[in-house]
Amino acid sequence: MRLQDKVALITGAASGIGRESALLFAAEGAGVVVADLQDDAGQATIKEIEGKGGRACYVHADVSSAVDCEAMVAFAEKRFGKLDVMFNNAGISHARDDDAVVTEEEVWDLTMRINLKGVFLGCKFAIPALRRAGGGSIINTASFVATLGAATPQLAYTASKGGVLAMTRELAVIHARENIRINALSPGPLRTELLMKYLDTEEKRRRRLVHIPLGRFGEAKEIARAALYLASDEASFTTGTNFLVDGGITAAYVTPE
Ligand code: NAD
User: Fold this and answer.
1) Fewer CB within 10 Å: N-end or C-end of the chain?
2) In testing the pocket of ligand 1, which one of 194, 204, 212, 221 has its CB within 8 Å of the most ligand atoms?
3) Is residue 150 scored above 90 in pLDDT?
4) 229-252 confidence digits (pLDDT tens)
5) 157 assigned to active site
6) What is the CA(85)–ligand 1 centre distance, in A?
7) How many domains does the chain have?
8) Structural domain of residue 183, as residue ranges?
9) Ligand 1 center–CA 213 separation, angstroms
10) How high is the pLDDT of residue 186?
11) What is the CATH number of the domain that holds 135?
């Protein structure tokens, strides 16, 4: 098994990418801590993992709160004895996030608090735990939008993900000699709740699909497989990278008919 004897903490693991990663990491032998705000859905993830013979437990944590982030890391170490993998995955995409003129300060601040400060806090409290474990892997979820501009703006979201990329690079360099690998994982457009609530008509979905060479939306499971690679020792020489798993969207100038 690819994560035998490892312990992983995954934020935003009640839904989407985080949930699929929790299921996959547990199936690959890891003890998994599921952190989220949605307690019922988080507990459902635990039940599913346990039903398949895996090891997991749930902790309520708001990633924008330093107190919660410190407590979730302490919980992981207490429950499983150590922490090897920190997956800072929780994120939001606000319905009123728009261009610079329209986006309200409140929407900007909330997005930055969760998407950017949340990743900072996850790193802040996980790094000492990873040191205690003798090293480890941090995965920070960014997005393809940190690399490409779009005429359908989500300015706060895009800026927050750009921040995640820059922060990830610098942290990777700072902590490389401590055997702590830190990578960004940048999904393309996925068929999860986060995106589909906006692409709610066939026409809107079709307009987006035109830009994706593979001609379809990605699945949360496909991102979980990339996260598994970054979490595992197979990625032992991979740090500071932006791992794009995006159906080719950032490679495309013109897409196939
Ligand atoms: P999702 O909405 O299915 O899951 C996100 C989870 O994060 C939810 O369970 C939610 O409760 C949790 N969460 C939100 N705010 C939180 C907070 N303050 N503290 C703790 N948990 C919180 O979304 P997803 O598609 O699985 O997205 C996961 C990550 O992937 C996000 O960072 C998102 O920005 C990124 N991403 C998604 C897409 C996409 O197309 N879906 C594309 C690129 C990047």
Assistant:
1) C
2) 194
3) no
4) 999 999 999 999 999 999 999 999
5) yes
6) 18
7) 1
8) 7-245
9) 24
10) 98
11) 3.40.50.720
